[in-house]
Amino acid sequence: MTYFADVAALARKDILLELRSRDTLPAMLLFVVSALVVFHFSLPSDASATASTGLLWIALLFTALLGLGRAFTAEREQRVLDGLVLAPCDRSAIWLAKSLGVLAFLGVAEALALPAYALFFEPVGWELVAAVLLANLGLAAVGTLLAAMAAASRARELLLPLLFLPLVIPVVVGGVGATVVDNPGRYLGFLALYDLIFAILSWASFEYVVAE
Amino acid sequence: MSLRNNRAVLLAAAASVLLVAGLALALFWAPEDADQGFSQRIFYVHVPIALTAYACFGWGAWKALRLLWTRDSRYDLESYTAVHMGVIFGILTLVTGSIWAKISWGVWWTWSERQLTLFLVLFLFYCAYFMLRFSVESGPRRANLSAVYALFGVALIPVSFLAIRLAENFIHPVVFTRDGPQMSGSMFFVFCVCLAAMLGLFASLYTNELMGKRLDARLRELREALE
Fold first, then answer.
1. What is the DSSP letter of B172?
2. What gap in Å lies between CA B163 and CA B210, rounded to an integer?
3. CA-nearest residue of chain A to B137?
4. Which segments in chain A show pLDDT lower than 70?
5. Is a pLDDT exceeding 60 seen at residue B65?
6. Do the chains contact at B121 and A166, CB–CB below 8 Å?
7. Is residue B181 pLDDT above 60, yes or no?
8. CA distance to partner chain B, nearest, from residue A98 (Å)
9. A145 contacts B155? CB cut-off 8 A
């Protein structure tokens, strides 16, 4: 049970830090709305509804990227990560807590993005909401691990998109598929499978990313 | 050291003989394909290269797993070399696949060819592997990060394959249906020779590259000891 207490404490720290400093979340919110507005102008007026669905997924992906780029900034600047690694807790708890924080920010950003999408483009159906919720899990799990990797490198912010985008192509396929086809079950199942595989892999390998 | 050199020379010789034999068999001995004619013979190069690329990535991931398991730093170089070879074979797969697509369907690139799309995704993924490696100081940290990333790669292969199959349903209607090659016995034999040749080429290149890199590291150590 101490494991979950550690996770809760660490996640609480991240969310409290964000509530006080308001560094990341307002930027994510503003970004996702700006992206949707830019997409309106980049789509020809006779574009189909499915085109805007694809663009919504790109907007969500890049919003996640924006949040992930900041995920380990505080730890790196104050050298907190060394302390966390030395703390007598399971290192995967750090990953889980950080993922929960990322998941929360992503959820808030989407709570704004989906109504905005419905307002500007197309109505939002239940399958889009389900796909977004499932995709969030995978994006947060994989993204947090890769953000930790990128934070350890010299290139940092530059490296994260390069690591992140090829790995989340299946998420885009699952998400767009679930939204545009008549029978979204297979695609939602695929998203769940992706979440499961990569969450387990990230959970198991995070220790090697932060430890020397 | 001489024993190891001998092995490398033997491997290189075997790979060369197999390559020449495989190409000769593919070009002159294998029966002409009824549908595609002469152009089908690129199959004997393209598919073995693709399978070898998978073998490289798999081997790299296996060495990465060994590294994380045993924390023995020599696996780092082995994993890196295997992934390096995998990327080279991956580029060759993309090039040969593109040539085949141009001859068969008249376009240099088609998203409906699953394997090619998969290789493009893998190519992007493993290019980022190099970016990651070159932006971290060498040491156990870099070894760990590279190993974890290489392991993600082998998980990504089946997941991406599934994703690409699913994506075909809505992104691209299947325009070009290509029946699986109806391989006769002699065709299959030539294919096996070519596959053995490519695997031999990989083994030979891998051994040489690894020897070179180890020599490099040893030289650096000696130079540092002298200074």
1. -
2. 34
3. A153
4. 212
5. yes
6. yes
7. no
8. 18
9. no
Which residues in chain A touch residue B170, judged by CB atoms under 8 angstroms apart? 176-177, 180-181
- Does the pTM surpass 0.90? The reply is no
Q: How many CB atoms lie within 10 A of CB B206?
A: 21
pLDDT in tens, A70-112: 888 888 887 888 888 888 888 888 899 999 999 999 999 999 9
Would you mind telling me the total number of residues written for chain A in this entry? 212
ipTM (interface predicted TM): 0.87
Q: What is the DSSP letter of B26?
A: I
Q: Which residues of A touch B (CB under 8 A)?
A: 145, 149, 152-155, 159, 162-163, 165-167, 169-170, 173-174, 176-177, 180-181, 186-187, 190, 193-194, 197-198, 201, 205, 208-209, 211-212
Can you tell me the distance from the alpha carbon of B173 to that of A65, in angstroms, rounded to the nearest whole number?
Answer: 31
Q: Hey, are the CB atoms on A205 and B145 less than 8 Å from each other? A: no
DSSP secondary structure string for all residues of chain A: -HHHHHHHHHHHHHHHHHHHH--SHHHHHHHHHHHHHHHHHHS-TT--HHHHHHHHHHHHHHHHHHHHHHHTHHHHHTTHHHHHHHSSS-HHHHHHHHHHHHHHHHHHHHHHHHHHHHHHS-PPPHHHHHHHHHHHHHHHHHHHHHHHHHHHSSSGGGHHHHHHHHHTHHHHHHHHHHHHSS-THHHHHHHHHHHHHHHHHHHHHHHHHH--
Query: Which of A159, A169, A174 is facing B135, going by the closest CB pair?
Result: A159
The mean pLDDT of B71-89, rounded to a whole number, is 90
Provide the pLDDT for residue A143: 94
